[in-house]
């Protein structure tokens, strides 16, 4: 064989690089280091561009991290690691079915095959003891009907970010799966899986348009279902499950519910309906069959308070009365009509039907302005006095509390009925009559006791709804008139 000068030169030029590459690879293999993680021996060989197993790793290794390498097949020698509990192959180029020898691994808990190039998952007929299997971020479109039946201990399966388009209802029937994650696949309807063990089903972001009423009936243990970020428009009447506790329908296109929507979900406890198309404020009767309901999320809906029906008041109360089901009261605000935008449902109702009472309530913009002007004047007077006493720079700081008070002023105040109180005397009979009857417990009474700390410019008052309410302790407030604030919630 002739080797011409050019080829020879090329080889001579390449040789150092080849040697260098080899050295680098050895160095990388050395960087695959082992250590005890508690009592468990772990070998971390991630991010090393490996295509073969370095032979320096102890066969007693229990956690083997081979993530983000260049494995295209399960490497030679892997079968010697019979004590593995956790095998991480995430971020490689695997597409082959599991080797048979894995069936003899008795301690294998987690197998991570996330971010490989599987396009199908087939049954090998071999039994595996795997408990948690991560197949997310592959391109799986085909799954054998019996694919997971070979894994009797498998309880957690992540199939998110694949190309699954619908799955047969009985595909998990013979498994013991408890959690199945199917986020970012495609389903034409909420699948009606059959399973007696499944508790947690995640179908977020699956372009699901349709939610059949009997979807959940064959999942006898289902506790949580996540259907967020789909395109469901209608919650079916009599959606039926005797076990479901947590229903997430956030970020869909649902515009209404009715008295039948949740009537067949007796154990419903957590309901997430954020980011839908609701406008009409509901009746509390929609939840009359849900005695265990304890958390409701409603942010991102554009509520119309048009009509000013009593539901505004009652449903607001239902959601916010302690223990509050809706903790974020800003999600219970009117979006329309214009004259009540930024008022809570309850406030919109009260102001419309009890305007006299309402005029005593809360801060009007004018009173805020007046309060602010007086406050600024007063603080500047105080400042000047201070400035006289010790001639350091006075101006900017003491005004801060006023500014803070303005910024802290929530857009929607809880309904506050302000009853004037004389400074030194108990209320007169007439005044007492004016005071609202308390329907809350004694503890919800406002705390009248001022914290008499002369240095401080804050007064802390405690009342329902606002835990710590700080406002400037301007003297005018005390000298003119004291008021009692009763928060009606
Ligand atoms: C699998 O690996 C990915 C990427 O490192 C990680 O995000 C995921 O949590 C792992 N899965 C399991 C079940 O540990
Ligand atoms: C808002 O306007 C409606 C008529 O569109 C009226 O019935 C209602 O009393 C108004 N509410 C308030 C608080 O001004």
Present as ligands are:
2-acetamido-2-deoxy-beta-D-glucopyranose
Compute the separation of the termini in Å.
95 Å
* Number of E-type strands: 21
Q: Please give the order of strands in the largest beta sheet.
A: 1-2-3-4-5-7-9-10-11-12-13-14-15
Oligomer: single chain
Largest sheet: 13 strands, mixed
What can you tell me about this protein's structure?
It is a single chain. By secondary structure, the protein is an alpha/beta fold. It has a domain at 415-436 and 481-489. Helix content is 20%, strand content 15%. It has helices at 5-31, 311-320, 345-353, 355-359, 365-389, 400-408, 429-434, 475-480; strands at 33-37, 40-44, 63-65, 86-88, 110-112, 120-121, 132-134, 142-143, 156-158, 179-181, 200-202, 224-226, 246-248, 270-272, 295-297, 303-304, 334-336, 416-421, 458-461, 469-472, 482-487. The protein has a 13-stranded mixed β-sheet with strand order 1-2-3-4-5-7-9-10-11-12-13-14-15. Strands 6-8 form a two-stranded parallel sheet. A hairpin with a 7-residue loop joins strand 19 (458-461) and strand 20 (469-472). Helix 2 (311-320) runs antiparallel to helix 3. The N and C termini lie far apart (95 Å). Residues 18-29, 359-363, 391-414, 417-425 and 438-486 have low confidence and may be disordered.
